[in-house]
Every structure is written in C-alpha cells, then in structure tokens.
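Help needed: design a sequence for this.
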C-alpha cells in the first residue's frame, strides 16, 4: 500500500493532471466527497488531500509515503525524515521582499511581516541586516500599509497582489515550485514502487 499526501488548493489543480499522466486517477466523485482518504484507480494507492503546510508533517512521520507541496513550505518545515525527489515545476512563483519604497528597507532593525519566518530570518541574516519578524498567517500585504511592518516576505507570481496594495518587490529570495517528497523510511522499504512512480511522473513533466 502507498499513501500519497496532496496539497489542496492551487497545487492540487496542477497536480491531478501530472498524476493522471503517470497512471493515477481519482474519480471526480471521490474529489467532491467529504472523504479525507480517497480511493484511486489503483487498489494499492490511496490519496489524502490536506493543507500544503501539513503535507511535510504527514510525510515526515510516515503517515504518508509520498507528498506534494511547495518549496516555500519545505524551506520552513525542514528536511527531517524526508527527501525531496522531484521538482514538479508547477505552482511556480518567487519568494520576495516587498515594501512601499526602497527607503523603507533602510532601518537599523527592519520589521518584517511574513508567514515564512525561517526563510526571512536566513535572508536578512545573510545580509547582516538586523530584523524583527512579525508572524502572520495571510494577507501579509496589509502589514506595511497599516504600519505593522516596514516590509513583507511573501510569494509573488503575477505581481498583482503587491501592486494592488501599493507595494513593490525589491529583493528576490528564491524561486518556488512544488516538489515530490518521500518519507525516508518508506524510500528504503518501498523503494521499487516509489522509484517507479517518481520515474513515471518525471518522464511526463
Ligand atoms: P493554507 O491553505 O495552508 O493557508 P495557502 O492559502 O497558502 O495555504 P495556497 O494559496 O493554495 O494555500 O498555496 C499553496 C502553495 O501554492 C504555496 O505554498 C506555494 O507553494 C504555491 N503558491 C502560492 N501562491 C502562489 C501563486 N500566487 N502563484 C503560484 N504558486 C503559488
Ligand atoms: C498568494 C501569495 C500572494 C499572491 C501572489 O496568495 O500569498 O498574496 O498569491 O500572487 P500574485 O503575485 O499573482 O498576485 P493567495 O492567492 O494564495 O492567497 P492567500 O495567501 O490569502 O492564501
């Protein structure tokens, strides 16, 4: 038996066609149901659909053998107990520093609003810039407008969200895309099945 943890939301939309090309199909009825463990066209493969941030938790602890989530999430979670197998090149965006203007970044101690606490700390540490991190869970773009922070560290794709809120991106931290991850123990005990899935997905990317 193989359990795959998928991220709901925008990653899921782009994941399902990749899985289908690799031979794994989930019926629309299953996807529309309130079930949390979904059957697939293969009796030996089950799928769980959870929040992107929970995917590495399930995989680390072996509750799922494989998982698909964003690199942004993995950078925050760390790689304890799991490996990254493939860059799926979906849900692509950039992790960036954005502010109302460049001067806002010139502070002795920069106030940074973000849900990406570890990535933000590391970025400013590398620059030798002292910072105070204000952890938020969403709507980061609001923080500079209401004076909660000097800048934000957030994902930027089209740039529409920062632009609509009077912000500009000034620093590129890293490129983000979704990754296929595997539980370290499962990679040993179910190696043949996992490698075959990873190969099937890879050859259709
Ligand atoms: P949660 O539901 O846990 O609060 P979320 O609201 O961030 O998470 P999504 O917006 O679906 O959930 O984002 C999930 C993942 O999709 C992110 O972790 C990131 O890897 C990717 N992502 C987020 N925003 C974008 C975007 N604008 N363009 C492309 N990929 C994105
Ligand atoms: C993500 C991200 C940015 C936005 C960037 O938000 O947190 O706010 O997308 O995309 P853009 O550059 O194309 O505008 P999302 O839509 O997932 O909303 P959420 O953070 O509130 O979940």
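Sure. Designed sequence:
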């Amino acid at each position: 038996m193989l359990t795959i943890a998928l991220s709901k939301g925008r990653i899921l939309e782009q994941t399902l066609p990749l899985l289908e090309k690799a031979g794994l199909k989930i019926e629309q009825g299953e996807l529309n149901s309130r079930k949390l463990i979904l059957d697939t066209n293969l009796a030996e493969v089950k799928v769980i659909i959870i929040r992107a941030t929970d995917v590495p938790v399930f995989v680390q602890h072996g509750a799922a053998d494989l998982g698909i989530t964003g690199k942004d999430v993995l950078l925050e979670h760390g790689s304890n107990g799991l490996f990254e197998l493939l860059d799926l090149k979906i849900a692509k965006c950039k992790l960036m520093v954005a502010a109302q203007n460049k001067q806002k970044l010139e502070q002795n101690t920069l106030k940074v609003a973000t849900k990406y606490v570890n990535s933000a700390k590391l970025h400013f540490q590398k620059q030798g810039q002292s910072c105070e991190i204000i952890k938020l869970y969403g709507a980061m773009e609001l923080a500079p407008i209401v004076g909660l922070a000097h800048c934000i560290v957030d994902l930027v794709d089209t740039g529409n969200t920062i632009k609509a809120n009077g912000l500009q991106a000034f620093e590129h931290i890293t490129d983000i895309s979704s990754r296929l991850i595997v539980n370290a123990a499962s990679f040993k005990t179910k190696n043949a099945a996992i490698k075959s899935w990873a190969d099937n997905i890879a050859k259709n990317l």
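The domain at 93-175 is CATH 3.40.190.10 (D-Maltodextrin-Binding Protein; domain 2).
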